[in-house]
Write a structure and sequence with these properties.
About 30% of the residues lie in helices and about 20% in strands. It has helices at about 20-30, 65-70, 75-90, 110-125, 135-140, 145-150, 165-180, 200-205, 245-250, 280-290, 310-325, 335-340, 345-360, and strands at about 5-15, 35, 50, 100-105, 160, 185-195, 235-245, 255-265, 300-305, 330-335, 365, 390, 395-400, 405-415. Strand 13 and strand 14 form a beta hairpin. With about 425 residues, the chain is α/β, with parallel strands linked by helices. Strands 5-4-6-7-1-8-14-13-9-10 form a ten-stranded mixed sheet, sandwiched between helices. The chain is built from 13 helices and 14 strands. The two termini are about 20 Å apart. The protein is globular, with a radius of gyration of 20 Å.
Length: about 425
């Protein structure tokens, strides 16, 4: 069976550094930090009092007030980013067969704020169980995919992938595989997350996973820096329209890049910590390259998971050196989480978009907030510190790893 080629024909982004694709990309290449004191609740008693929140966003500019009240924020974010991507692709203007268009979405947590609000209301009441009838449909992680399919009448494959911070990349890889197997003509994919909540920040603080640099939020996410002290929690969404190449060409679609391949692996080591030698990260990049039928020397840019945690950055660097060998020193490497923070289940979506835009524009976004080299990290590698760099980017690889040892890599390349 001959596999079909898969291309990217639409993009949408709602991020802490920009509320549209254009704003997000401009924020990336200008080295903008999205971190600031938390606005959504009083965090003054929390160990971490800042996050990368969405800014200047009013959901009612996009979704009717009555309908928006039925959606958790993670679904609102999904709907807004997917709407931008669908408009960008002009997919629906070609009168496609909607039985062959699906939605595969990623979210690591889902409707955390809805769960938090309903539980708080119950505890503060008299014990009478008066729950919002939309509580369960707002909370369940699959509901964002459901809402997107309902809005556009898409009757193809429809589900959510949940693999912690690897969720959105798992969704992208699943979408890619279904299209190349001929199971769909196009799929709306990506991920969304809205975990900047009392329980979200408190829970990650309990794990001691978050940076506590409250005196300088904008410089707190500092991947590969000696003084990194944890990740910065982010929120938002990214959406991609993946499409069968022949289907896209037939309708005259704009094409950003080709999806070249994807890999998945497990650390099988620890519930939160990476394997210290980066074995899972190593294996997943090898698998992605094999799937894409590419050699390590074909890759120009790696958008790393790079969360700014003491252990994670070292393990991923070891994996890159193992996989790419001497070519590792010819790569541009960057962690865009230094700007956006960590969007958990949505991270893979906005970072895939960063890779696709790097391929399209031949610019590599930077890793900002680098101040001091870490002697445990090979700083002869080009981490694209502090400023974007222009270079030809024919092939870009995106890594996303999740609690539980879940590893994913997706590869995008220039269409030829």
């Amino acid at each position: 069976m001959e596999l079909k080629r898969v291309v990217v024909t639409g993009l949408g982004a709602l991020t802490p550094i920009g509320n549209t694709l254009e704003e997000y990309w401009n924020g990336l290449i200008s080295g903008k930090s999205g971190a600031a004191p938390i606005q959504q609740f009083d965090a003054s008693k929390f160990k971490t009092q800042f996050a990368c929140e969405i800014k200047n966003f009013n959901v009612n500019d996009f979704i009717d007030r009555k309908d928006a009240r039925k959606l958790d924020k993670f679904s609102q974010y999904a709907m807004v980013s997917a709407s931008e991507a669908m408009a960008d692709s002009q997919l629906m203007e070609s009168e496609p067969n909607t039985d062959r268009i699906g939605v595969i979405w990623g979210s690591g947590i889902g409707g955390l704020k809805s769960l938090e609000d309903e539980h708080t209301a119950f505890l503060e009441g008299d014990g009478t169980p008066k729950f919002n009838p939309f509580f369960i449909p707002k909370m369940i992680a699959d509901i964002a995919a459901g809402h997107i399919s309902i809005k556009y009448g898409l009757r193809g494959p429809n589900y959510v992938t949940v693999s912690a911070c690897a969720s959105a990349t798992n969704a992208i890889i699943d979408a890619y595989n279904l299209i190349r197997l001929g199971k769909a003509d196009a799929i709306v994919t990506g991920g969304s997350e809205a975990a900047v909540t009392v329980m979200g920040v408190g829970g990650f603080n309990g794990l001691r996973a978050l940076s506590m640099r409250n005196d300088s939020p904008e410089t707190a996410s500092r991947p590969f820096d000696k003084d990194r002290d944890g990740f910065v929690l982010g929120e938002g969404a990214g959406a991609l329209i993946l499409e069968d190449y022949d289907h896209a060409i037939k309708r005259g679609a704009k094409i950003y890049a080709e999806v070249a391949g994807g890999g998945m692996s497990s650390d099988a080591y620890h519930i939160t910590a990476p394997h210290p030698d980066g074995i899972g990260a190593r294996n997943v990049m090898i698998e992605a390259l094999k799937d894409a039928e590419l050699k390590p020397e074909d890759v120009d840019y790696v958008n790393v998971h790079g969360t700014s945690t003491p252990l994670g950055d070292i393990a991923e660097t070891k994996a890159i050196k193992h996989v790419f060998g001497e070519n590792a020193y010819n790569l541009n490497i960057s962690s865009t989480k230094s700007m956006t923070g960590h969007l958990l289940g949505a991270a893979g979506a906005i970072e895939a978009i960063a890779c696709i835009m790097a391929v399209k524009n031949d610019i590599v976004p930077p890793t900002i907030n680098h101040f001091t080299d870490d002697p445990e990290i090979d700083n002869k590698l080009n981490f694209t510190f502090n400023e974007a760099q222009k270079r030809t980017v024919n092939v870009a690889l995106s890594n996303t790893f999740g609690f539980g040892g879940h590893n994913t890599s997706a590869i995008f390349k220039k269409l030829k």
